Amino acid sequence: MEFRFKRIAVKIGSNVLTRADGTLDITRMSALVDQIAELHQNNTEIILISSGAVASGRSELKLKNKLDPVSARQVFSAVGQAKLINRYYELFREHSIFCGQVLTTKENFGSRRHYLNQKNCMSSMLENKVIPIVNENDTISVTELMFTDNDELSGLIASMMNMEALIILSNVDGIYSGPPSDPSSGIIREIKKAQREKDELTDYIQPNKSQFGRGGMTTKYNIACKVADEGISVIIANGKKDNILPSLLKENSTEVCTLFVPNENPASNVKKWIAHSDGFAKGELHINNGAKEALTGDKATSLLPIGITRITGEFEKDDLVKIIDEKGSQIGLGKVKYDSLQARELIGKQGNKPVVHYDYLYIE
Fold first, then answer.
1. Are 230 and 159 in contact (CB under 8 A)?
2. What per-residue confidence (pLDDT) applies to 212?
3. Would you say the C-alpha torsion 26, 29, 33, 34 has a positive or negative sign?
4. 96-100, 122-126, 313-317: range with lowest mean pLDDT
5. CA angle 65-104-46, nearest 5°?
6. How confident is the prediction for the chain on average, in pLDDT?
7. Which residue in 39, 32, 33 sits closest to 165, CA to CA?
8. Residue 269 confidence (pLDDT)
9. What is the pLDDT of residues 195-247, one digit of tens each?
10. Spatial distance between the Cα atoms of 105 and 278, rounded to a whole number of angstroms
């Protein structure tokens, strides 16, 4: 069978993989592996971003000593991750497919070198028909440096690996036009670029967090918008439905879900990295309205010193900085060509090279 996407990232949420008591739902996990195996055997490249490690460890361990939330998460993850990946390994082996574990942290995306190391690792796995199974390394992550949840991680992975589609499997059919419990609410089947730009749908998004995961539909929506704007199709669907993945990937699929229609003009690989690196900015470049109009216009423009009015923070050449307008709002991110001392000496001057070149500038 031919499927409409040949390179996909699939994120499976905690509420898909766990039962009500927090234990792993092996039956559901096995069914999803069967579906992924079918896609894999039809020459679809797949990266799996899987939650469930902490929930798995929590259901296995009964801690005698009370731990703080971070320590408890680390212990549950250490035990649960081993249990989870072992289960995946055995299930994929039944299909004569190899899988491999990739544990990462948010810090690994802040450095271009670490970013490319991860990309090269997963590219090599895919070339050798090995399915990467990615999760945050909760054993060494601390609260302020953690991903919001695996939705954020899946967006980064899909962007980094230039996937054609990101499929986020949750325990609901997609984004509803009201509370899911309200019979009059329906699934919003398609979200186009114009709707995202006008922010038409945020009133519909339910802020509730999932039972076992850290995220909720608000996070899924925000990540999906960013990834779709980078030229990648994003689908939010119900991972508890039978045969959901092959059904979603059929040509002219009628499966109930929410599709974020991708931007037809995708960003470059470097711009994709910058777009997801907001938390790693080392300083701020404050610009005047003239510079803002130039940067947000239709013509490709670099940020020149003449448009900069003020610089805050200390940074080195090639660090990431935020671009701030006269109202104090962030309009983008960029990789600087000067350190903060050199950049301050250039403020407002004409005839100099760009402080941030267009190729390394992401405008939100």
1. yes
2. 42
3. positive
4. 313-317
5. 120
6. 86
7. 39
8. 79
9. 777 666 666 665 554 444 444 678 888 889 889 988 999 999 999 999 999 99
10. 15
Q: Is 175 helix (H, G, I), strand (E, B) or coil?
A: coil
Count the Cβ atoms, other than its own, within 10 Å of residue 1: 10
CB 265 within 8 A of CB 289: no
Query: How are strands ordered across the β-sheet holding 190-191?
Result: 98-104, 130-136, 45-50, 7-12, 165-170, 233-238, 258-260, 190-191
How far apart, in whole angstroms, are the C-alpha atoms of residue 256 and residue 294?
42
* Placement of tokens 């899987």 in the chain: 50
Which one-letter amino acid corresponds to residue 347? I
Q: Which amino acid is at 262?
A: P
**Among 44, 13, 39, 7, CA closest to 232:** 7
- Asked whether 169 and 18 are in contact (CB, 8 A), the reply is no
Q: CA separation (Å) from 333 to 26, 279, 290?
A: 43, 10, 17
Given this model, what pLDDT does residue 213 score? 43
- Tokens for 72? 């408890």
Q: Which amino acid is at 339?
A: D
Higher pLDDT: 238 or 25? It is 238
